[in-house]
Amino acid sequence: MSKGYEVWEERQMEKGIDVERVKEKIKSFKVETPSWGYGDSGTRFKVFKQAGVPRSLFEKLEDAAQVHKYTGICPSVAIHIPWDKVDDYGEVKEFTESLGLKIGAVNPNLFQDDDYKFGSVCNANPEIRKKAVNHMLECVEIARAVDSKILSLWFADGTNYPGQGDFRDRKHWMQESLAELDAAMDDDMRMLIEYKFYEPGFYHTDIADWGMAYTFATKIGKKAQVLVDLGHHPQGTNVEHIVAFLLDEGKLGGFHFNNRKYGDDDLIVGSINPYELFLIFNELVAGACDPWTKETAENVAYMIDQSHNIEPKVPAMIRSVLNVQTAYAKALLVDRELLKERQLNGDVLGAEAVVREAFEIDVRPLLGKVREEMGLAPDPMKAYLESGYEQKKLERGIGGKGWE
Amino acid sequence: MSKGYEVWEERQMEKGIDVERVKEKIKSFKVETPSWGYGDSGTRFKVFKQAGVPRSLFEKLEDAAQVHKYTGICPSVAIHIPWDKVDDYGEVKEFTESLGLKIGAVNPNLFQDDDYKFGSVCNANPEIRKKAVNHMLECVEIARAVDSKILSLWFADGTNYPGQGDFRDRKHWMQESLAELDAAMDDDMRMLIEYKFYEPGFYHTDIADWGMAYTFATKIGKKAQVLVDLGHHPQGTNVEHIVAFLLDEGKLGGFHFNNRKYGDDDLIVGSINPYELFLIFNELVAGACDPWTKETAENVAYMIDQSHNIEPKVPAMIRSVLNVQTAYAKALLVDRELLKERQLNGDVLGAEAVVREAFEIDVRPLLGKVREEMGLAPDPMKAYLESGYEQKKLERGIGGKGWE
Amino acid sequence: MSKGYEVWEERQMEKGIDVERVKEKIKSFKVETPSWGYGDSGTRFKVFKQAGVPRSLFEKLEDAAQVHKYTGICPSVAIHIPWDKVDDYGEVKEFTESLGLKIGAVNPNLFQDDDYKFGSVCNANPEIRKKAVNHMLECVEIARAVDSKILSLWFADGTNYPGQGDFRDRKHWMQESLAELDAAMDDDMRMLIEYKFYEPGFYHTDIADWGMAYTFATKIGKKAQVLVDLGHHPQGTNVEHIVAFLLDEGKLGGFHFNNRKYGDDDLIVGSINPYELFLIFNELVAGACDPWTKETAENVAYMIDQSHNIEPKVPAMIRSVLNVQTAYAKALLVDRELLKERQLNGDVLGAEAVVREAFEIDVRPLLGKVREEMGLAPDPMKAYLESGYEQKKLERGIGGKGWE
Amino acid sequence: MSKGYEVWEERQMEKGIDVERVKEKIKSFKVETPSWGYGDSGTRFKVFKQAGVPRSLFEKLEDAAQVHKYTGICPSVAIHIPWDKVDDYGEVKEFTESLGLKIGAVNPNLFQDDDYKFGSVCNANPEIRKKAVNHMLECVEIARAVDSKILSLWFADGTNYPGQGDFRDRKHWMQESLAELDAAMDDDMRMLIEYKFYEPGFYHTDIADWGMAYTFATKIGKKAQVLVDLGHHPQGTNVEHIVAFLLDEGKLGGFHFNNRKYGDDDLIVGSINPYELFLIFNELVAGACDPWTKETAENVAYMIDQSHNIEPKVPAMIRSVLNVQTAYAKALLVDRELLKERQLNGDVLGAEAVVREAFEIDVRPLLGKVREEMGLAPDPMKAYLESGYEQKKLERGIGGKGWE
């Protein structure tokens, strides 16, 4: 590995890359993992139960701590309420800190109560809207209790048939509910508004695309931003363009990383289209270099949101985190000055080559070196699998907590 | 209604339509409803339980009998094994007949057993493949016991990640399994092989399109045909073209009717794109008029396969059946001679107008008249809702049988 | 026809429809046709030249006058600069008025000059951006000269490869160019900003979706709105939802009507998915009934934008106009009070039925009656085809003006 | 470079890769370039004319010879008739050989004659069908004259509107035409039947998917196979699955390489989704290792088919060829034994990792070494750009031959 790294470093330095700076950037890059990614999930056809799945939030946090232990870049864990509801959040905070972690985004669940059959904040019934808003306010309280600054909002609200709901009424209800939430949030909290093309609504979704999320967020003001989930777009969408656009508007709040080939498949991030993931990071790195977008770019919340239906959960999470880190590392190697020069000269092939060649670089020597310097094993997956934790987990048996 | 019908009939007869023949055709047209369409279903996010859902196959059949009672065109019911597994199929047959119904297609379930996590007939483990084949052979026995002639085969087999499975190995296992099934089937039985673009497999599906189903069916021979589910195609697919192609090849076996806007949404057939449904029936009616395809066309099995996640089940089924009947009735009104003439003359707008104008016709007067002549209420939905059955069903309570 | 209408009217009045009001609405509804829709167009593979295609703007206007003569609802014609550039716009205005027409939207062409190879207002070269802005300013002058109040802006700007352009630089250039245009426009003029998912850019398009057009328009202010072209969305997009959303924001400016099955196919509007067209009008009619959106709804510019590649141009335009009128008429028949009531009650099937049943109505008797009252032939297509104009046009020969 | 290669080779050998064998494979791998890829092309909106574009087939061949000179793997050139029609094919053959090249696939053009407005071999007019067949027979003669063994068949046949054509009539005409062609072909010739989802037909295409091409090819028999163009599928299609399926059936005949994000964008292969290209080669390499599919795999015709609308033609072609070679090289590095073992064990993450890790390898050191051993410059693009040919080409001026 060592000789490999030396040759690698030499080649980059010849190209003028400041390798030390790249390494610093990689070391400070963080990705949040979700508590629900350690539990069972599945499709509408079947949830295959895995042995060793956590039976409580505490066990989910233990699993998350393993991911952080081996990757070194996952110090925070997103929670989902009420899946992760407990009596004493002080205890959660304490336990989390004892694992070297902290709680990240708080995610209200507005889709699994029977009352939400026809929607939550967009329900035609004002009592159900009230209930939904109250649940969000409860999550603000929880966020305060666990010292989290982010509410991550996904609304499953939508309809299945033409005529079922009134688009504009529902839009107004959404805006009103978000305004109530805004009023209850502390000034240093952010709400990240997620959009989704479809599912579970199969005719319309109340926040169907980034433009709708952006419109809502803009009306709310500085506490609201948009959350981009990589699986929530129509086929063919240029996601990196949306990312750049939102960055420029100061409205890019965060990501739910995963990958998809068809619908919202929730596969391991980078597993289906690694180049797209890289191109997204290419925009994020470019944004961080530009004074106009720097502050927004540096506050983007990077979060995993996947469903490991058939693969083991902890290794799948490690793989995801490493894929994200890989894409980020490659994006750091793009020669931005040369790129800009070629863009300005109309050198189509030349500009494309600058971006593409960074992607072609094998960054495993670099990442191995960075990990070494961080006191980690160079191959986190191997280290985890050899640690025995995966076997120990089995003692928990089958039937741990899933999405419900 | 009556005056409406007279004016309607007059207008059609002016155009040279043989209205009596059209009425006869409509009277002999049948659609099969699925036992599982009366039970609870949902998305991966939530199954909203409805009150009054059947607790047994027998109650499902009672619901199906209601649909037949008011529409007059649903005398058969598809079953799903093991969801509808019972000890005594003789009893099922007897009960079904007592309701004026018969059992239609038998659907093996090859996706809900834990063993099928990595596939059923395409599983790398030969014992699981054997188990899957045995389950299909069991379904042949059940088909014999309930006097059904159709096995409807949907394989959820697929993979979630590149490299997970070997496409060609799995293809061979599929072919071998179908051959074993073929050998066990009676000569007057048919297997209908369904294809699906994706879900629950999110990287590949072993029978991903009609071409794969067709290839398997062609190798099996005369007992095998292709089953078209309207929700199982990529966006934009010209389904009526595939229908015509399969008809011409003698390999169109049947339909699973439903509708979709995005993925396999399983919405009420005709609710999202009624023109597409009409264009499909336009091909089926054309095929039935042509000696080359007549036999195939007349043996096509028309079956509903939907998930009524948020709407009441029996009314949703009635609506679906009526939408299918409406599309069929309109297709019968296409002036085929004029259409052919214009097609041969390169009269693009003229040919399009012939097809389109049949769709524009309001066939409610015609269908009302047909129902009157069949001794049915002219508005089946109204008649059902006024019958009190929907209220009576509620006595069953919440928690009837769903997909599992 | 007459008896048909009486029965039809009776049935609607039984349902409480104010038929006279519906007729008035239909009479005041207008659709604009585009000058370029009368000329040759094609695909990248081939432009099939048709005989009789106009050789000048004046002949295009003559063709447009025919469409208005028989449909009665197409008094204005959109023009495309420089395709329709002339020396003396006073002459154009006079000639147009002599035909009983007026000039509608002015469309700058920013994609056919060799300078625009890498973009127009988003070109990295400031001189080309300046040239593009100047062309838009020239169009403002032309609009004044022909008394048009609308500039219809479609930017072909985009890139073909990752890295080719800088998304955020280009966004800023777009915003700056629109601001220059805004400053030059009169207070009673509007710019309608079109968006498009892809083509001719195959990697990214600078205004790729409604959200981007909306963001630009919002920053410009009251003179800017969004233009919806029905062929410019990703597969599966719920266009009626976007329409309702933009209406609610006061930012829906107009439509380019056409239809598509795959990409931006530019087929006759309503020919592929008539139900979608109806659902869009359902939102527009609903918006016009609501004080909040009434003003926006009443100022929406309805424009055809199609490519009649293989079908005769004038009949294709008549068909398109009639399809739009049909969809509008059906939308006027939706029982909005009953719909709202059922929406508020969570009656999914009932609400859907209200919308769907209006679509099922055959409005040909109604439209025939309306035309009779407007002094038009009941069947505009038949009347046009019998008029001899189509034959007379042939004298123009082959080789009229196309897109270039 | 040299030290880089040594480290690279060492790492591969540690993993058990037979690097010499890999190098041999890469050296014998060939890609065909198309004569029309050197000429002007564009979108329906605009063809931007480039300076230096070839004015004759002979100049196209000179450009193709440059691509071969620097890449070493492009010895054959596909031609398009009548674009490349000449009086004396003997002269072409001689000239081609003098450049160290040979003529590859012959492509009949069945879409640019005015007679083909409503189709070629599927035209309702038997005289036009006859004309189309005769053109294909002419191409057989040309193939004999230039010693080509492959006819590459793309039919633009399709319709734009429902009802315009009769799907089944047209299917029969297609089959009859192919049978006539088959009868005229020599036993050692192959026809490769291309399919396409849409465009230029926007409602239906007569050979819309691989299943239709396969059905036609199967009826023709051994001389017919399927041609896969990477831009001709619906969004989301798993192309590598289709490739494996056709390989297994012995019906995979060849490729038209390019890339797409939306429709048939015809971008540089590998520029949008390099992982997909790699996964396709992964199947081809696997197929070549399997006795069952070896012969088919070894006879697959690899051809580029792109439109370089805005980028310089020769460099774009070099880039494409290198991208294909890169994907192939990475596919050769997949550890097939380990992959199979993990597939059989249900090790989802492990199997995925084997495939993915081969993709992550930077093969530039390997390819540089291979080129060195072949007597080529290690960086073909750099060598070409420094050669001065690009400047010399400019003498040809603007207005060379494009698609017409």
UniProtKB/TrEMBL annotation, chains A, B, C, D:
Gene3D superfamilies: Divalent-metal-dependent TIM barrel enzymes
Keywords: Isomerase, Manganese, Metal-binding
Taxonomy, superkingdom: Bacteria
Top enzyme class: isomerase
InterPro entries with a match to the protein in the record: L-rhamnose_isomerase, Rhamnose_iso-rel, Xyl_isomerase-like_sf, Xyl_isomerase-like_TIM-brl
Enzyme Commission number: 5.3.1.14
GO biological process, one term: L-lyxose metabolic process
GO molecular function: L-rhamnose isomerase activity; metal ion binding
Matching Pfam families: AP_endonuc_2 (PF01261)
Domain annotation Xylose isomerase-like TIM barrel: ranges: 88-265
Name assigned to this protein: L-rhamnose isomerase
Species name: Biomaibacter acetigenes
